[in-house]
Structure formats: structure tokens, C-alpha cells
Amino acid sequence: MSGILFIISAPSGSGKSTIVNQLRSLVSRLEFSVSWTTRGPRGSEQESREYHFTTRDHFEEMIRNGEFLEYADVFGNYYGTALSTLKEAFAQDKDVLLDIDVQGASQVRAKMPDAVSIFLMPPTPEILATRLRNRSRAEGSVREEDIDRRLAKARQEIENYRDYGYILVNDILDRAVEEMAAIVAAERIRNGNDPGAGGADRERVLRIAHNCRQANSEARIRPVLQAFGVPVPAAKG
Ligand code: 5GP
């Protein structure tokens, strides 16, 4: 397999789907992997567009047949990335973006250490709770215990941020989209497979991506970690 594998993880409700959808219209040759799941469709979701929806029995058969690159149990449902999705995209000379949780990301990193991983943080627990409530309301009902459970899970997921190469904070949507696109472009330049990137634009995307590297984003993520009660690394210098 030859293309670049990008992974994005974020706590549920961080605005990841919005960013990923906007990225679709900005970046060419990037395949958005459609995962398999045993959860039911939500809202306007369609079979094979957001997910391949299936039964637990079928999912477990796929596990037994070794059809997954990774899979995980998230909130009581299975989610997994089929190996065939990756193979087809790479055969067409495309890069692939996986939108998977932190458990799946660690399985992929173990198998494919060159994968480029990006962690998207919500700016504050309050903003995350508001987004989660709005989403639940749109789906019918808000259960505060669900919101609390998701906030606790978000905190746990954020604790894993150090495993990711790049960190984004979704405080300004347009900025997060621009950063995501810059990371894709910068990694393509690094891999020597972006002949289109030259001149001022090249410098710009490399600078933006550089600033999003985990090692360079400490000042930006510190208040987010503090707000979620995640231990903050000692300040440098
Ligand atoms: P949702 O049900 O809100 O669409 O997704 C719940 C969580 O499952 C999100 O964190 C999402 O990234 C994760 N997820 C979606 N597809 C996959 C997958 O194929 N593998 C893993 N490990 N997680 C996934």
C-alpha cells in the first residue's frame, strides 16, 4: 500500500463531521473511509454514505474472517474499518482519511506506524455539552446522564492526545478546516507526492501544519486540558 493514511479522532460532539465534510470539498485524491457499525442510522444518515450499517452477527463474522484493519466497541456498538476500503483507495492512488476513536487509532498506529494522526479537541467542556445537548434534542430527547457519560468519555479520550502527531482545537470552524487541509497538503509535500504545491502556498501550508504539530501546540491546548481536568505537562523553559 502506497498512499498516506490519515487518522482523525475526536470526542463525540467535537464538530469532527462538520470539519471532515468541509474538507471533502477542499481536498482532492482523499478517500473518506466509510466504517462498518452495528449502531442504527441517525437523522439523515444513509447506508454506505456515513456508514455501512450491519448486525452484530455479521460484524462478528467479519472479525472472525480477519476483514478489519481495526475495530472497537464504542458506547456499546461495534465500529470498524474494513481492510478492503483501504486497499481499493490506495489502488486508485488516493490517500485515505479514517475517522476513528482512540482505541482504533492505537490499533492502526501499531500496524501502520507511518499513519498521520490528528486529534481534534473541543475548546471547553461547556461548549461540548451544549453541542451534545443540541444534537440529542435534534434526535428527540436529551438525557442528562448520557451527556455526563459522553463528557466523561471525552475527558478520557483527551488524555490520549499525546499519541497523536497533530492537535487541532475546534474553537473557530474555518480555522480548524484550514489547518486540517494544510496538514494533508504538508504531508503530501513531505512524501513528495504533491507536485501541485509550490511557492507561497507551499510555505503557508508547511507553516500552518508545523504549528499544529503536537510539540508546537502546547500553549494552545493547555487551557483545553485545564478545562477538562486533564493533567497539563510542565511548561518548557
Ligand atoms: P458516531 O456514532 O457518533 O458516528 O461515532 C462514535 C465514535 O465512533 C466516534 O468517535 C467515531 O470516530 C468512532 N468511529 C467511527 N467509525 C469508526 C471505526 O471504523 N473504528 C473505530 N475504532 N471507531 C470509529
How does this structure look, described?
It is a single chain. With 237 residues, this protein is of the alpha/beta class. The protein has a domain at 5-33 and 95-228: P-loop containing nucleotide triphosphate hydrolases (Rossmann fold), CATH 3.40.50. The protein contains nine helices and nine strands. It has helices spanning 16-26, 56-64, 83-91, 102-111, 125-138, 144-158, 173-190, 199-212, 218-228, and strands at 5-9, 30-32, 35-37, 51-53, 68-74, 77-82, 95-99, 116-121, 166-169. The strands form two sheets. The protein has a five-stranded parallel β-sheet with strand order 2-7-1-8-9, with helices on both faces. It has a four-stranded mixed β-sheet with strand order 4-3-6-5. A hairpin with a 2-residue loop joins strand 5 and strand 6. The longest helix has 18 residues, at 173-190. The site of guanosine-5'-monophosphate has 14 residues, from strand 5, strand 6 and helix 4.
